[in-house]
Amino acid sequence: MKLLIVGGVAGGASAAARSRRLSEDAEIVLFERGPDVSFANCGLPYYVGGEIAERTKLLVTTPEMLRSRFKLDVRTRSSVESIDRTAKKVCVRDLASGREYEEAYDKLILATGAAPFRPSIPGIDLPGVFTLRNLQDTDRIKEQVNRGVKQVVLLGGGFISLELAENFVRLGITTTVVEKNDQILTPFDREMTTPVVEALLGKGVTLLLGQSAEALEQTAEGLVVCLNSGQRLPAQLVIFGIGVRPENNLAVSAKLEVGPRGGIRVNDHLQTSDPDIYAVGDAIEVKDVVSGEPTQVPLAGPANRQGRIAADNVFGRSVTYRGTQGTAIVGFFDRTAAMTGASEKVLRRADLPFRKVYVHPTHHAGYYPGAEPMTLKVLFHPETGKLLGAQAVGGAGVDKRIDVLAVAIQAGMTVFDLEEMELAYAPQYGSAKDPINMAGFVAGGLLRGEHPQVDVEAVLAAPAAGRPFLLDVRTAQEFASGHIPEAVNIPVDDLRSRLGELPRDRKIAAYCQVGQRGYLATRILQQAGFSAANIGGGYKTYKLLHPSA
Ligand code: FAD
């Protein structure tokens, strides 16, 4: 068996190492266009900021190591230029010498990744304008920083830009993030990004939403980023992080099938439309675990696992890839946002039925020092309660909850399973009723009809005539420091004695700060004969949706 692998980082290196473990005899050649293999892309922003001090730490392994330990024929600075599927060979260019040669294969794995998108706007090639994908980009960015950067403009408000923003703030560089959409971190639902926006602003980052770069200009002082709004941002360093495009040139010119967004089409054995050619990682189209629809998810975990699975299939083990659920996490200083499965906006776009709950617990027992608040949003099927997606934002403990929910989604669990989940607890780690259980209780109560809930957006969007009576059951002080417009305040402890102040001919939408007192109020009202529902997630959810209210 002669196996050729194109691309030597996450997917390619995983496929190569796994292949060797499965076959001592196979001839395995790994081609990589760059000088490095298997480097830690995910660590690059932290090397820029100095958090990772030594460059060598980013080299997860070296060509020499892959040669000696795995008996791999590693060829760096080698670009695969084309595939001849009929003759089963590839054409390779040795970038050092310029020499071109052919290499035959029995099986071929494409792990070519995705390239950062560079818009074709005036000035895009000016010195000081970068994208970040590999160590060479990182070296160039660091060089620029070392020349003395006072202002940086990051185009795009995605994961990489946020990570870079943290590192530039740490370096004392004035940082501006420009995002074309009306929110940062677009895979998330907008309200879940509110705490991250607050953190960015709190650290002095300027955030410009709904704007994009139209041109870049060179001046005597450095660069100017010209925005569509007419605003001109001076900077000495500009980095585009506005998304990636699958590197599909080889596949396209070899007439392999690709999807509408350029991802190489594969079956669940990760075989392309040519059964002797497999493809993995950022270059491919994957099946969305929740919707079953084709999608593209450029993440390291899927790429690594796919590399392993492709190797398994090449060497005769019939292993299938389950699909991708987009479990992702990002940090900005002490703020963490994480998600798994479908977002609300994806479900809406696909016109799939769902319900949602928000809970705002602390990450461990509130009485134990250091408890940090988090918001957890869980989306589920309105009849079966099957979990569809989850997002969390906060500090410590966000990662753990999203990982638990990622497993639950993969296992096809429901919100009723969340109620029953037995999770590790001591006061410094969690709560006897973990945030996961709490989300399960709220969602389970909703589906069983024990806990009628209404979404605040639905209440506010209702025509004035049919709008529920808004009842704020928090204390007078809480009410005075901010409330939903038109709400009337009757604290929950006074509610039983003040029922006469409430209308019997209108539905009552009760709310408190996070949902707990609102739930109790709803129970009191229902048993007193009122038609009442609790506003899910309370005032805190309202504030996530309306941060400037
Ligand atoms: P890549 O890792 O991009 O590797 C593809 C390789 O193929 C490249 O080195 C390229 O040079 C080579 N190649 C392409 N075409 C050819 C050719 N014709 N001939 C030879 N070689 C070729 N993901 C996460 O899940 N979490 C994170 O925190 C995270 N952080 C990131 C931070 C940064 C700065 C970046 C850039 C990415 C980050 N990612 C993160 C994404 C993650 O790195 C990718 O999803 C993952 O590396 C994809 O693996 P891959 O093997 O498909 O592609």
What's the quick description here?
By secondary structure, this protein is of the alpha/beta class. It starts with a strand and ends with a helix.
List strands and helices in order, with pairings.
Blueprint: E1 2-6, H1 10-22, E2 27-31, H2 44-48, H3 63-70, E3 73-75, E4 78-84, E5 89-94, E6 100-104, E7 107-110, E8 114-116, E9 129-131, H4 135-146, E10 151-155, H5 159-170, E11 174-179, H6 194-202, E12 206-209, E13 213-219, E14 222-227, E15 232-235, E16 237-240, E17 244-246, H7 249-253, E18 277-279, E19 286-287, E20 294-295, H8 300-314, E21 328-332, E22 335-341, H9 344-349, E23 355-359, E24 374-380, E25 387-394, H10 398-410, H11 415-420, H12 435-448, E26 453-454, H13 456-461, E27 469-472, H14 476-480, E28 488-489, H15 492-495, E29 508-511, H16 516-527, E30 532-535, H17 538-545
Parallel strand pairs: 1-2, 1-7, 2-3, 7-18, 9-16, 10-11, 10-16, 11-12, 26-30, 27-28, 27-29, 29-30
Antiparallel strand pairs: 4-5, 5-6, 8-17, 13-14, 14-15, 19-20, 21-22, 22-25, 23-24, 24-25
Helix pairs in contact: 1-8
Bound molecules: flavin-adenine dinucleotide.
